[in-house]
Design a protein that fits this description.
Keywords: Meiosis. The protein contains 14 helices and no strands. The chain is an all-alpha fold. Helix 7 runs parallel beside helix 9.
Length: 315
């Protein structure tokens, strides 16, 4: 009886995922997603039953869940872009994407590259849920990721130390962000204290990103002391990246600076960061002279006459 029920649950889940993919795919050009009331109710029920199934899946079940989950996940990525300016639609897509994540999570093994993929998907999904106000969903996803993290730390799978460090940082920083948004400031501080000292570029990027988000949020709430603390942490993470001399860290710094220049090109802190980057010993003077580094676009007049020597060190 249990076996037949488990098989029926598998069929229901995969059929529902396929139906969602079909409904959403044909509605991409419409103003609204167009999910019917029954589908929305079933989606909410599935998410309430997170994780989807308890029984260990067979190889064929893993394949079916992975295939349907991947198709639904990719559809949601497209829809997130299409409906990015429509909050209600984006929140609904976020929930559908969480269901797709649940499919992929159930299909993933607890070792090897499949486990790594599941963790990375969990971190991505938890972050998306937080950004769209689905905090309860994010909490459950982080709890599922915690089980995988625990198994990974105890295993002898030979995972690279830098990769494990990256996952540890991402896991704790997501918990920090979630706790802070839930108003559990003491827990956020406690979790932040668990962040390992990182020589990992992606880890520093995650620390900087979330500390900046918390600092900006606190600033918008006029919590100035709190804002200063978290923005200082974001800046420290960025400066830590300056001390790393790896291809990964340099790529991280370039990516972070490009994002800052796009959104905040004329702000003084961004100009300071650009100066700090110019002070790196590894900077090629020819790159600077060729115009790859645009320093003072839109800055106050009294700064435009400053001469920057590529050999100068800024601390």
């Amino acid at each position: 009886h249990r076996s037949s029920k488990a098989e029926m649950d598998v069929i229901l889940a995969t059929d529902f995922a396929a139906d969602l993919t079909y409904q959403l795919a044909i509605d991409q050009k419409k103003r609204h997603l167009g999910l019917d009331v029954k589908s929305v109710a079933q989606l909410n029920q599935q998410l309430n039953d997170f994780p989807l199934l308890i029984a260990s899946p067979s190889s064929s079940t893993r394949r079916r869940f992975d295939q349907e989950g991947t198709k639904l996940w990719n559809t949601c990525i497209q829809l997130m872009t299409i409906y990015r300016d429509r909050k209600e639609e984006v929140v609904l897509v976020c929930k559908v994407k969480a269901f797709a994540y649940a499919m992929l999570e159930y299909a993933a093994p607890y070792r090897g590259t499949g486990n790594n993929r599941a963790l990375e998907t969990a971190f991505s999904m938890a972050s998306t849920c937080i950004d769209n106000g689905c905090l309860d969903l994010s909490q459950r996803i982080i709890e599922i990721a915690a089980v995988r993290m625990d198994k990974l730390e105890k295993s002898e799978s030979g995972i690279e130390g830098s990769k494990l460090q990256q996952y540890t940082i991402e896991y704790y920083m997501l918990r920090v962000y979630l706790a802070w948004l839930q108003g559990r400031l003491d827990i956020a501080e406690h979790l932040f204290s668990k962040i390992p000292v990182s020589d990992n570029g992606r880890g520093q990027e995650r620390v900087m990103d979330i500390c900046y988000k918390i600092g900006s949020c606190a600033l918008s709430r006029k919590q100035y002391d709190v804002s200063v603390k978290w923005l200082e942490r974001a800046l420290r993470a960025f400066r830590a990246g300056l001390r790393l001399d790896t291809k990964e860290s340099n790529g991280f710094l370039a990516k972070a600076l490009d994002a800052l220049k796009i959104h905040y090109s004329g702000m003084f802190p961004v100009l300071v960061i650009q100066l700090e980057l110019l002070g790196k010993e590894e900077l090629n003077e020819n790159v600077f002279l060729q115009g790859h580094w645009i320093i003072f676009c839109g800055c106050p007049t009294f700064l435009t006459n400053i001469r920057v020597d590529s050999a100068t060190k800024y601390h």
